UniProtKB/TrEMBL annotation:
<feature type="binding site">
    <location>
        <position position="327"/>
    </location>
    <ligand>
        <name>NADP(+)</name>
    </ligand>
</feature>
<feature type="binding site">
    <location>
        <position position="247"/>
    </location>
    <ligand>
        <name>substrate</name>
    </ligand>
</feature>
<keyword id="KW-0028">Amino-acid biosynthesis</keyword>
<dbReference type="Pfam" id="PF01118">
    <property type="entry name" value="Semialdhyde_dh"/>
</dbReference>
<feature type="binding site">
    <location>
        <begin position="159"/>
        <end position="160"/>
    </location>
    <ligand>
        <name>NADP(+)</name>
    </ligand>
</feature>
<dbReference type="InterPro" id="IPR036291">
    <property type="entry name" value="NAD(P)-bd_dom_sf"/>
</dbReference>
<protein>
    <recommendedName>
        <fullName>Aspartate-semialdehyde dehydrogenase</fullName>
        <ecNumber>1.2.1.11</ecNumber>
    </recommendedName>
</protein>
<feature type="binding site">
    <location>
        <begin position="39"/>
        <end position="40"/>
    </location>
    <ligand>
        <name>NADP(+)</name>
    </ligand>
</feature>
<comment type="subunit">
    <text>Homodimer.</text>
</comment>
<dbReference type="InterPro" id="IPR012080">
    <property type="entry name" value="Asp_semialdehyde_DH"/>
</dbReference>
<dbReference type="InterPro" id="IPR012280">
    <property type="entry name" value="Semialdhyde_DH_dimer_dom"/>
</dbReference>
<comment type="function">
    <text>Catalyzes the NADPH-dependent formation of L-aspartate-semialdehyde (L-ASA) by the reductive dephosphorylation of L-aspartyl-4-phosphate.</text>
</comment>
<dbReference type="InterPro" id="IPR000534">
    <property type="entry name" value="Semialdehyde_DH_NAD-bd"/>
</dbReference>
<keyword id="KW-0220">Diaminopimelate biosynthesis</keyword>
<keyword id="KW-0486">Methionine biosynthesis</keyword>
<feature type="binding site">
    <location>
        <position position="99"/>
    </location>
    <ligand>
        <name>phosphate</name>
    </ligand>
</feature>
<dbReference type="Pfam" id="PF02774">
    <property type="entry name" value="Semialdhyde_dhC"/>
</dbReference>
Length: 348
């Protein structure tokens, strides 16, 4: 029969998008079981047009499950993914708990699908949403040109911090709407007060050069994550990578500026052709017609949108790009669903 799927964390921001995606994609699943914290158990959620009652996360919830997707905090994954794996469940985990484990593949189906089969722990990791917003486009360019260095800046949406991030931006916007705030130092901060939610500073009418927690020498955990994961996914463990992560007042869809240097000379026409034909990428690049991607247009869609393709003025081996990717879809739920489908194909 068809494999049984469990969605762990079905009630979160990513979980909600996952249920939509499972309802939209070609259906490869038998039973779909929904699992969440005991606090959410008993709620009914709709998937594939049916109401399904949410079960509480415990060992018995994994009985008879073939594949489990985890969209839960790191500590919950760290505890429960091995429990499910020990019962023979293939876990596709979207937390940071296992991404850099050498015995756990970090999979982006368009870039390194073959690595999914090598999973000695029974766990496959889904990359961070910031890495995922650029890596499909970069993987396509790397396959053709050979990547040598990466310098990127992110413009990250608040839903990267889950429902708390979305609620925080909405509340802050309601506090500043229709005012003249944003004209004097600190006026937005005073209006927002301590309602900064998961962010260190107000994000409404602002940009905040910080995501994650403090690591060595002033780097943020998010910046280190993008560097480490890009190296692992592309199979380039020594790749020089410099990242600056910034939070912006966008609900959903991360954007990034990318400076990518390659082995030899590149051309804009060549790069555009690679991007226009790469699976999972849409090239939207005609500034003369006002065409470039923005998060407001990319949100709710599956592909990585790429525009502003330019050759670096002072280096014929490098390109500048602007990319947008929905951080809840390709950045999380969609990529997880694609990985789970690869596993389902194997099990068939
Ligand atoms: C963020 N990538 O955007 C991080 C975690 N989801 O906040």
């Amino acid at each position: 029969g068809r494999p049984t799927l469990a969605v762990v964390g079905a009630t979160g921001a990513v979980g909600a998008v996952m249920l939509q995606i499972l309802s939209q994609r070609a259906d490869v699943w038998g039973e779909i079981r929904l699992i969440a914290s005991p606090r959410s158990a008993g709620r009914k959620l709709s998937v594939r047009g049916e109401e399904v009652e949410v079960a509480a996360l415990d060992e018995a919830a994994f009985d008879g499950v073939d594949v489990a997707m985890f969209d839960v905090p790191d500590d919950v994954s760290a505890r429960w993914a091995p429990v499910a794996a020990a019962k023979g469940v293939v876990v596709v985990d979207n937390s940071a708990a296992f991404r850099m484990d050498p015995d756990v593949p970090l999979v982006v189906p368009e870039v390194n699908a073959h690595t999914v089969r090598n999973r000695p722990r029974g766990i496959v990791a889904n990359p961070n949403c910031t890495t995922l917003s650029m890596i499909v486009a970069l993987g396509a360019l790397h396959a053709e040109y050979g990547l040598r260095e990466l310098v990127v800046s992110s413009y990250q949406a608040v839903s990267g911090s889950g429902r708390a991030g979305i609620d925080t931006l909405r509340e802050q916007l309601s506090l500043v709407a229709g005012t003249e705030l944003g004209t004097g130092p600190g006026d937005v901060r005073r209006a927002v007060g301590d309602r900064t939610g998961p962010f260190p500073e107000p994000v409404a009418l602002n940009v905040v050069p910080w995501a994650g927690s403090l690591r060595e020498d002033g780097w943020s955990s998010e910046e280190m994550t993008v560097r480490d994961e890009s190296r692992k996914i592309l199979g380039l463990p020594q790749l020089p990578v410099a990242v600056t992560c910034v939070r912006v007042p966008v609900v959903t869809t991360h954007s990034m500026t990318v400076h990518a240097r390659f082995q030899g000379e590149v051309t804009v026409d060549g790069a555009q052709e690679i991007l226009a034909t790469a699976p999972g990428v849409v090239l939207f690049d005609n500034p003369a017609a006002g065409e470039f991607p923005t998060p407001a247009d990319a949100v709710g869609t599956d592909p990585t949108w790429v525009g502003r393709v330019r050759r670096t003025l002072d280096d014929p081996t490098a390109l500048e790009l602007f990319v947008c990717g929905d951080n809840l879809r390709k950045g999380a739920a969609l990529n997880t669903a694609q990985i789970a489908e690869l596993v389902a194909e194997e099990l068939a």
